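Our preliminary data section would be incomplete without showing what the modeling component actually yields. Below, a chain of 411 amino acids is followed by its predicted structure, encoded as tokens that our downstream tools consume directly.
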Amino acid sequence: MADAIEKPSFTSSGRFRAIVGVVLVLIIAGAAWWWMSRGKESTDDAQVDAHVTQISARVGGTVLRVPVNDNQVVEAGTVLLEVDPRDYQIALDKAKAELADAEAAAIAAQSNVPITSTSTESGVSTAQSALEQARSAIESASKEVEAANARLKAAQSRLREVEANATRARRDVERLKGLLAKDEVSQQQYDAAVAAADAQTAATDTARAQIAEAEAAVRAAESRRTQVQAGESSARAALRNAQTGPEQVTATRARASSAQARVEQAKAILAQAELNLQYTVVKAPARGVVSRKTVNPGQVLQPGQPVMALVQTDEVWITANFKETQLTAMRPGQRVSVEVDAYGGRTFEGKVDSIAAATGARFSLLPPENATGNFVKVVQRVPVKIVLDSGQDPEHLLRPGMSVTPTVYTK
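Predicted structure:
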């Protein structure tokens, strides 16, 4: 009876020890896991990245040759495709001809500047000299007019004097004629009076002739003065026209500058034509692997149309999307171990290069909007760039897009 009662007590004690053992094992396992995971962060949301350059022709045309194939390794400067260059060669020749024409026009325009300047200075000097001569001639003609008017006045005064004397002589003749009839005067006295009257009449005619001559001289002098004044007006006009020479020189220089500007424009067109001709040959910008080739000879391309991609496998890195809660102790420069799924977990060594300035969701096409009232908190992921140590991938086995599992040692 006592043995039957003690057996259940023994069973309860064994169960208790088993439970204690399991708990101890779990505690030890948890402590071991904590110890092993302490000071490092890992994620399987990571992939290999590299520079992928989209290759396109900068000019359009018909493809003549595509000397590369898909997945071919090419060096920097390798010809990837050639576009028919004939149209661009013609454009280049035309640009050269237009440049030569513009340069010739510029030389002619430049040579006109000193010629115009010299002729302008000479024209101003000649016009000023002609104006001075015209002014002197006007002064001389004015003096001649004044002198002719003075002679005319003198002749008119002489005429009045002579006419007065002739009138007196006629009256003397008429008075002596009556006295002669009465024999109060001698015939000799009468004849002398008649001769004096005739002399005064002749003197009157002479004075009148002198007046006519003086009037003609006045008219001639005034006509000459009018002609000289007209010449002065012409000289003034010529001087004003010559004084516009600086504006003409400025206009000539402006035309020369315009011609020089056309030369520069023609040079720019020529340079663009040379570039377009060079662009008909598309070369690899760097060493890499040709991928996604979509062009063949005979195809007509448009400028900027992508025809292939160039993957630069010489420089690859890891983009790991860590949870925001894993970034607490993560810093650039920390050591990283990267396992690559494609090579059976082969490990590569590297370091943290940088941490993105925003979460991946902020760079998506439609970033989340949390101000709508139905917000649900989701742990965000932040891209972290990891670079491999030099010499880790000499065979360039890593390809962009491969899945990897990086582990960052934060302590």
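The first helix runs from residue 2 to 37. Confidence is low (pLDDT under 50) at residues 1-10. Preliminary results of this kind motivate Aim 1 of the renewal.
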